[in-house]
Amino acid sequence: MLIINLVGIALIFLIVWWFWLYTAKNERKMSANKSNGEISIIVQDGVYQPSTIALSTLTGTTLKFTRKDPSPCAATVIFPDFEISEELPLNKTIEIALPIMEKGKYVFHCQMQMYKGYLVVE
Ligand SMILES: [Cu+2]
Fold it and tell me: What is the pTM of this model?
């Protein structure tokens, strides 16, 4: 009985590590500034690159997502604040036009929120 409990606890720690700690460690803090109203984002190795996108103006931003990760988990990108949900076919570039945004920080993520990125509008 004790051994079963210990295995259970070990599994819980493993899951916590996998979903939060491992992803956090892998996260690369990069930011891209707006150029020509378009920003390219690569979906690969558990992260969006760049994962933090700084936008200094409020109009006409298009994000170009290219998914290189075959994991089905990466196949959808969701912008909950704008009710945007887009499928990302493998190795194709998908353009997502963003609405005019107020200042603030907006999250975008995959379905299970393992991939996570932020738009920072200043
Ligand atoms: Cu996912």
Answer: 0.72
